[in-house]
Amino acid sequence: xxxxxxxxxxxxxxxxxxxxxxxxxxxxAQTRLVAAIHVFAWxxxxxxAVTFTVAxxxxxxxxxxxxxxxxxxxxxxxxxxxxxxxxxxxxxxxxEHLRHPALVVxxxxxxxxxxxxxxxxxxxxxxxxxxxxxxxxLALVLIGLLMMVFRHQAVAQVLGFMSMExxxxxxxxxxxxxxxxxxxLGVAFDxxxxxxxxxxxxxxxxxxxxxxxxxxxxRLKEVE
Amino acid sequence: xxxxxxxxxxxxxxxxxxxxxxxxxxxxRLNLAVSGLTLLGSLWLAWxxxxxxxxxxxxxxxxxxxxxLIVLTAFVGLTTAIFSRPYMEHVQASGRISVLNLRLYHGLxxxxxxxxxxxxxxxxxxxxxxxxxxxxxxTVLLVxxxxxxxxxxxxxxxxxxxxxxxxxxxxxxxxxxxxAQLVLADTESGLTWSVLHAHAAALDPTVMRxxxxxxxxxxxxxxxxxxxxxxxxxxxxxxxxxMSAVLSGLLLNVALYAVVRxxxxxxxxxxxxxxxYLAGALLMGFGLVSFVVAAxxxxxxxxxxxxxxxxxxxxxxxxxxxxxxxxxxxxxxALLHMLVHSLTKSAIFVTVGHATHLAGTQSIERIRGLIRTxxxxxxxxxxxxxxxxxxxxxxxxxxxxxxxTATMQTYPWFTVVLLSGLAIAFAGLFRxxxxxxxxxxxxGQMPVSANLLPVLVHLGLVLWLGLSIPGFLAEWLDRAxxxxxxxxxx
Lengths: 224, 490
What we know:
Chain B: It is found in: Cell membrane; Membrane. Chain A is an all-alpha fold. Chain A contains seven helices and no strands.
């Protein structure tokens, strides 16, 4: 099944997912924290748009609620909380020096290829749509992971964590038309609590090492 | 249903109430009362399950496999609460902690117990995920409770590593749900474990195979499997000692429980393909590596709490390996090992808590002559370590012996690895233990007030389980074994 014969709505969903993936790359190499938060908010908005589109195709009514939840949480509330934290920590003008940015983007590309390779046998029985969407969400998850590994700034790591969650949510919404409502609410609640805790930790970390460069958290060693 | 509600609502309401209590003494006593009531609820639940096999409803499902873990969780929750009351008073007296944090401590303690009980009793894989993630969130502030740079670092590492791991598990859960949608008529129940288990053979094997890898890495991070174990020694050594006792004794079990439940699904799905033992083989691989690596790392430790956290990794590796081997004897042994390891390890951490008070340090080199200064603590530590190292007549010996026999029957060559690993671990523990217990006590080391009742009860139970496993418990574990493997041992 080629892209052209997919229903228009599915094509739209894939387009949105592709844009979300693109934003993951932007996030990966963005050095200014405030800009990165904005990118993350746009990614959340895209995921919400995907959810809304899937809801329109009429699979499940509770997806309208999920779309609203995602929009509030991922596009508005969490970015706003991060923004406020960055302002209170005085990091508005903070830029992070990235080591080997080109290499990292290449690694991101490799992860996308890997994701497509991994899902290849999984949905061979047709379903170009499902295959694309699962591969893209897996790539979002893995790029988020990559970002957490190579960024040293605590706020940037949290952004990587949250964009991983975006990927997971995208997979849940588009491949399976949404998890049961109780699970979605639970996940959203966990995410919100995690965000509050991250905020607490930013201050604890700064208090203990006078910076938010997590690389300098290096007192604990395997063998002293 | 009523006993389940009692078990789950008590820590929920109690935990919320504890956030409001200001006075430390009151909070400690209330914590104790809530834990006691939870234990009563869980015992009632166990009694009900013994009568009717399965208690189900409202998305919860309790059977022979999880009910004994629920009782264990409530029990260790209570004994640790007994230990934690004087311990936290001591901590407060030493001025390492603010009043606000103390209030937080008790509330979060109950929240942690609650998330574990929910994870164990739920029938929904999504709720299981939410609860396990909730357990991380409840404990992460407790790990950084003392606010030293080390504690903050340990907590951040724990938060990030377990957060990432558990996110991968969620991806696996989504894939499982996706596989379920292809076969189930009622898609809403696509995450209900019992429904999935009934349709396991129909689930698409390719999807389930990939899903299991994500699930294993995800929940395996929480089990503490090498190489995702990095958070564990740090979190255990920097957090307050009661936390170490429940993390080692309970949380790791809960994560392993999730892995085993999911393995049952994947086994069902892969049974007809050309790789029917894939899940088992993965568990065996991860388990064995964790077991051996942790045994070797025991030798290098300088911090007493890190020492015993590596011992936890070692034992979790052993259990993971045993569940991977599969078959009734290995599974029965693994289930028994979960029980005796929890009891012994939490007893050891309680003792270690007192020992570090006595010596005023966690450094192994500076803890000396426990038996001379305060024989009760010295002997407790000695017996705890003897038990955990797998000496007869303690229960750990029984379960390890079962595991070894089972391995001998199915994969004889692995017995060599297991035996050498056990010997290395034994040497690692005792080279550190001997001077700590028998060495010359430093000048001016004074006895501290210690409550060794939890240790006595735990080690007594482990001893009892080593001498004779009571009939009802054996029958219980056997029923669980039958559920997991399709055949019983007895």
